[in-house]
Design goal:
single chain, 46 residues, 1 helix
Length: 46
């Protein structure tokens, strides 16, 4: 592998890390909201 290819693959790898990280948070958020809506839970009112 040439130096240019190595640089490109490293850049793609480091760019993918935050996408996977934030994608995981977003996925958990969507699933949690879907479960809460299906079970009919609402915010607690004081």
């Amino acid at each position: 592998m040439s130096a240019l290819e190595s640089i490109i693959w490293h850049a793609l790898g480091y760019a993918a890390m935050p996408v996977i990280f934030f994608g995981g948070f977003f996925g958990v958020f969507v699933v949690a909201v879907a479960i809460l809506k299906m079970t009919g839970n609402t915010p607690v009112e004081d």
